[in-house]
Design brief:
Elements lengths: L2 E8 L1 H8 L5 E10 L12 E17 L10 E5 L6 E3 L10 H7 L4 E5 L3 E5 L2 E4 L6 E18 L2 E10 L6 E8 L4 H15 L2 E2 L9 E3 L18 E3 L1 H5 L13 E3 L6 E2 L19 E4 L10 E3 L27 E2 L28 E2 L13 H4 L3 H10 L6 H6 L4 H4 L4 H8 L3 H13 L5
Antiparallel strand pairs: 1-11, 2-3, 2-11, 2-18, 3-4, 3-9, 4-13, 5-6, 6-9, 7-8, 7-17, 9-10, 12-19, 13-14, 15-16, 15-20
Helix pairs in contact: 9-10
Protein name: SAM domain-containing protein
Organism: Potamilus streckersoni
Length: about 450
Amino acid sequence: MELDCDSVSYSASEFLNKFSNKLPQIVMVTQGFCGEISVDTFDVGQVVRIHTYSKQSRVVAQQIEPNSQLRGRHYSIPLDYPTKFSLAKSRASKQYTLKELVESNSLPVEVNFIKDQTVTVGPRTLPTNNLPGLRIIATFEETYLLGNSLVEGMLDPRTIPVPLYLSDLKLAVVTGIKGKPESVWQRYLEELSDQATALVYDTHYGNKDIAVYHSDSIHPNSVYAEVAPREYTNFVYAFMDVNSLEPEGKFYNFVNSESGTRSNLKQSPNPARKSQTPDDQDQIKNHPKSRPNTQEGKSTAPDTNLKSSPRVTENISNNEIKVGVATLKADNKDSPKEKRKVIDTDTQTEPVTSRSVVAETQTEPVTSKNTSHLENMSISDLEKLLEKLKLEKYKTLFHENMIDGALLMEFDSGLLREEFGFTKVEAIRLMKFVKDGHIPK
């Protein structure tokens, strides 16, 4: 089924400004975006029914501890983050939530994590005495468009959140079906609206983790809602050197069920995310004595054939997969897939299947007849190689994870795509070099 689109394309922010009172709208991605976070990646030609939007209150914080590497680093934290703080300049032991701090103090204000406690995140326990002081600079609302992909002419029940900070993403409003009268298009819209009655949208949806910004993306004149995070992460990865932390109990890793690869890397440019469940929230315990980046890519040339790219959102601070912010109403007997389709499509799209979380799975190393070109390659050498292969946007992440030639030998295409956000072509380009040293001429 080919669709007709309006000639004007909008950024997500422009779209909301123009159509916030005219939702829902069917849109097509006319300029894609390969972001550093999986939920920030959209394909050209992807068709989404934008139903509503959500707003989440967050604070912008700056690290103030004299750590040579992380001092001055900027974060955004959900206003309802389940951790308490104390005022840095106060001798009183009074504890505040972020919301209480913002409501009772003029910004900026410097705060510390409550001492002599521990924060438990998954299998790790982090003493709060080692966490840095923060300067709370401002508050802002992070906004997402909420919609659903069209799969074979029907709504996929999983919600796609479209962040407004993706300024390079372009959307065009779909105005009809190519070669079909307006009456057919209107019947189709009515059918989609009927399917959407089985869905519930969380208008307060937002990422429950801490956003880490690029060092040069925050400045005095920044409009924080328009600044794209480098990654979303949790306490362990945001504020500390994870190599210095002691794991407690068995450590489970993300595993790609197709490639069988396991990884325990820092946050990748393509981490998927989801809303946390209560069990995932950081737990604070009394503890008397504590124990001793990438560039975005754009793509163009849309195909007006109906496509779908249904997405599953995951939580980067734990290892289980969960459908995103819209859920089917339990009392609705007719699921979207059981409803009659008004218009059949030519596109045959397989539903997305979740990756499984498996423990103790062995990583399959790269098999190669000659790996001498990798064995002595340093981290710096590998960064130069990425430039030659036009993969320089991954240099920062490879450097942060201390990837050299010997480690690269253990990679495969699945790991590159899942953990680092490579496209299929980019993964092939790098793996071709890994296997036989090939550099495109």
